[in-house]
Amino acid sequence: MEFQNTLSYAQNLDSKDSLHKYRDQFYYPKVNGKEVIYFTGNSLGLQPKNSKEYVDEVMRDWAELAVEGHFYADKPWWDYHERLVEPLAKIVGAKTEEVSVMNTLTVNLHLLMVSFYRPTHKRFKILCEEKAFPSDQYMLQSQVRFHGLNPQDTIVEVKKRDGEHSWRTEDIIAKIEEIGDELALLLIGGVNYYNGQVFDMKAITAAGKANGAFVGWDLAHAAGNIELKLHDWEVDFAAWCSYKYMNSGPGNASGIFVHQRYLDRKDIPRFEGWWGTKKETRFLMKPEFDPMANADAWQLSNAPILSVAPYLASLQLFEEVGMKALLEKQKLITAYLEFILKKVDDQVASTFEIITPKERGCQLSVFLHGEGKSLFDYLMKNGVITDWREPNVIRLAPAPFYCSFEDMFRFGEILKAGILSK
Ligand SMILES: Cc1ncc(COP(=O)(O)O)c(C=O)c1O
Are the C-beta atoms of residues 26 and 401 closer than 8 Å to each other? Predict the structure, then answer.
């Protein structure tokens, strides 16, 4: 497709965009009285306008029904979280029984590691990407220490090659084979938070499993952003947060995936709680734990309804739009943003290097050679919300639900003015 760097061209793309009308379903912060251009859906998605209605419903039921709301609210609380499973299964490519919603992301990864990191004398190593998201690093290190092992001898990081900005699948697979029968677990971020790279989850999962390891994915930057086929790829487990591309609200509930082959089994070690035991007999308050036959077996507590309600509201929009349309727009708008960046780069004889490889979702990470944090500050002051990562990278994520092609054009003009004004 031959793009053009003009307002009318961008507006024409918007007029053909079936998702354009969804802009009105979200709230935008304002800078200088104008709605911002929002590039940080990879960090915290915008608030869908319907989320208040879902939260208000719970508040009203709580006021009017109190404890009776557990069973007699319009959406009873005791199984409220089950309403999220069907839309989520479509988003992550899973069977409904493989998905559950609970806790927050790091908590869930810890809980899943209880089941899927069971080091033995021979097989004890964990493979992850170098400079994984810090919370994942802390999680892995603390799990390893919990098992009485030393992180230095246990955690192996796959590195990028010198001078390259992304990981090569062949290097990851070579590392898996090198570790061989010492490899207990492979756990990587499916989309890297820093460079936006989408890992070849199918190939890497197959290689990990062929070598006898469990394979899990942190899908914080993947869920709702890229196509996932967790069941077909035979991933063992995964977890994601919902407040980035899934617009559920700050710190909101996380989702988990556990492959069908591990469901309805009592022999899997788990940290257990009453919401994981069969719902038919839960309130008989028996001492024996009888796991739910689905991923809910990993649930511990009754669901935080006020956190799950806005997640359900947002998933309703995903149901309406469907991942197919979102993915189509994601590809087009990200390509248009890339084109705009290159045009600005030509015009200012500058300085940008897109470090995101072609395997990407909607995030472009841009290295600003010779431009410091002042450019980021300029963008923020002029209504462009991006985020900054040391040493000199801005991350731009044009989330297809609420970013427009006109936003990309306007961003290019603001960026150019920012560089030229120095
Ligand atoms: C890749 C990745 N993993 C883990 C986390 C931690 O998420 P939480 O604070 O919900 O546990 C984040 C948060 O941004 C993340 O980006």
Answer: yes
Secondary structure element (H or E) that encloses residue 207, with its range: helix 201-210
The Cα 348–Cα 151 span in angstroms is 47
Our mutation pick for probing the ligand 1 site, out of 107, 111, 133, counting the most ligand atoms within 8 A of Cβ, is 133
Ligand 1 centre and the CA of 87: distance in Å? Answer: 22
7-47+322-420 and 52-321 share one CATH topology? no
Confidence of residue 420 (pLDDT cuts 50, 70, 90): confident
How far is it, in rounded angstroms, from Cα 124 to Cα 137? Answer: 16
Residue 96 DSSP symbol: G
pLDDT at 104 over 70: yes
Model pLDDT for residues 45-101, shown as the tens digit of each residue: 999 999 999 999 999 999 999 999 999 999 999 999 999 999 999 999 999 999 999
Per-residue confidence band for 348, with pLDDT thresholds at 50, 70 and 90 = confident
What is the predicted pLDDT for the residue at 351?
Answer: 76
- CA quadruple 210, 216, 221, 225: dihedral sign: positive
Query: In angstroms, rounded to a whole number, what is the distance separating the alpha carbons of residues 348 and 371?
Result: 12
The CA 16 to ligand 1 mean position distance, Å, reads 35
Distance, CA 356 to ligand 1 centroid (Å)?
A: 20
Average pLDDT score over residue span 327-334 = 98
* Predicted pLDDT at 347: 86
Q: Which residues pair with 157 in a beta bridge?
A: 128
> In CATH, which of 3.40.50.970, 3.40.250.10, 3.40.640.10, 3.40.50.2300 is domain 52-321?
3.40.640.10
**Cis peptide leading into residue 76 (ω within 30°):** no
Q: Would you list the domain boundaries of the chain? A: 7-47+322-420, 52-321
Q: Which of 115-124, 257-266, 345-354 has the lowest mean pLDDT?
A: 345-354
Average pLDDT in the 352-361 region?
Answer: 95
Distance 117 CA to ligand 1 centre (A): 19
Residue stretches of the annotated binding site for pyridoxal 5'-phosphate: 105-106, 133-136, 218, 221, 243, 274, 302
- pLDDT band for 39, please (50, 70, 90 cuts): very high
Residue nearest ligand 1's atom 16 by CA: 220
Q: Which CATH superfamily is domain 7-47+322-420 in?
A: Aspartate Aminotransferase, domain 1 (3.90.1150.10)
Ligand 1 test: best mutation among 106, 107, 142, 187, most atoms within 8 Å of CB? 106
Pocket of ligand 1 (CB under 6 A): 104-106, 133, 135-136, 189, 193, 218, 220-221, 241
